[in-house]
């Protein structure tokens, strides 16, 4: 390829993340994935079926940010290190498939440091592990319905100065926690809901077999983006919410110890 043509391809990949995914990585994005790749939102929630491609899209976005935005810090988080490593593995594979267009200063099992000053760091999703990082350009929280609430509260301040992006992706897991709260009542989020029936790679026959092999509650949670009550939940979410009355003043407001 002539130098000018190569430069034009690189420029188009920098400006068009759908083109980057399709032509650079060989990934054919679904319609919802195309919308996500072209989004300019800073805060994104993905509530998706299992095997919908949400982690792959997060890997595409994280790699694109590191390659085309020099000096970016990208954090990849999940409830357990094994889970965040899985997403990072996809990202690393994409990077190698591209032919390492930006040379790496350090390419490790849990991190990637590029010659343009960008870093991608993989961490287990706990509040203790993320403190100390600041100025993040992009934070990806995989399996966000299962992470500790403290992680979310620790992550947000590190985006304050950088005006960085926060992406939380998950299959639902109970009607509690930050992911459920932000999905149902949070403000300032761009939301994507993707059920298994909207994923062309998941066949109807497979879903029917899954429906017959597991409890209805579990099927709705795993494949239909339904926030179900957890098995150990004592009170139903609706009952708790119905019991709240903003007109009742708390008994001990303003009273000190004793």
Describe this structure in words.
It is built from 11 helices and 8 strands. With 258 residues, the protein is an alpha/beta fold. It has one domain (3-243): 3-Layer(aba) Sandwich (Rossmann fold), CATH 3.40.50.300. An 8-stranded mixed β-sheet has the order 3-4-5-2-6-7-1-8, with helices on both faces. Helix 1 crosses helix 2 and helix 4 (54-68) packs across helix 5 (81-97). The relative contact order is 0.14. Mean pLDDT is 89; it is low at 232-244.
Q: Outline the biggest β-sheet.
A: 8 strands, mixed
- CATH C-level class is Alpha Beta
Shape: globular
In helices, the fraction of residues equals 40-55%
Order of helices and strands: HHHEHEHEEEHEHEHEHHH
Q: From the 3D structure, determine the CATH topology.
A: Rossmann fold
Question: Unreliable stretches, pLDDT < 50, 5 or more residues?
Answer: 232-244
- The secondary-structure class comes to alpha/beta
CATH superfamily placement? P-loop containing nucleotide triphosphate hydrolases
Number of helices: 11
Number of structural units classed as domains: 1
The fraction of residues in strands falls at 15-25%
C-alpha termini separation:
79 Å
Q: Give the total of beta strands.
A: 8
Strands in their spatial order, largest beta sheet: 3-4-5-2-6-7-1-8
Mean pLDDT: 89
């Amino acid at each position: 390829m002539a130098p000018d043509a190569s430069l034009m391809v690189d420029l188009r990949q920098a400006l068009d993340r759908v083109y980057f995914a399709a032509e650079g990585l060989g990934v054919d994005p679904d319609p919802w994935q195309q919308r996500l790749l072209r989004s300019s939102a800073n805060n994104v929630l993905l509530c998706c079926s299992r095997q919908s491609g949400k982690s792959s899209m997060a890997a595409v976005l994280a790699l694109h940010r590191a390659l085309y935005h020099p000096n970016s810090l990208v954090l990849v988080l999940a409830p357990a290190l094994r889970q965040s490593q899985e997403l990072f593995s996809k990202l690393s594979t994409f990077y190698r498939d591209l032919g390492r267009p930006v040379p790496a200063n350090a390419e490790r099992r849990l991190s990637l440091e590029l010659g343009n000053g960008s870093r991608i760091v993989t961490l287990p999703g706990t509040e203790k592990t993320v403190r100390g990082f600041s100025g993040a350009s992009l934070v990806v929280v995989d399996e966000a319905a299962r992470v500790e609430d403290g992680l979310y509260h620790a992550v947000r301040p590190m985006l304050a100065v950088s005006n960085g992006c926060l992406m939380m992706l998950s299959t639902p897991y109970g009607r509690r926690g930050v992911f459920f709260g932000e999905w149902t009542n949070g403000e300032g989020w761009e939301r994507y809901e993707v059920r298994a029936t909207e994923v062309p790679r998941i066949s109807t026959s497979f879903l029917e077999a899954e429906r017959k092999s597991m409890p209805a509650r579990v099927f709705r949670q795993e494949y239909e983006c339904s926030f179900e009550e957890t098995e150990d939940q004592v009170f139903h979410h609706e009952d708790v919410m119905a019991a709240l009355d903003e007109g009742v003043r708390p008994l001990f407001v303003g009273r000190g110890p004793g």
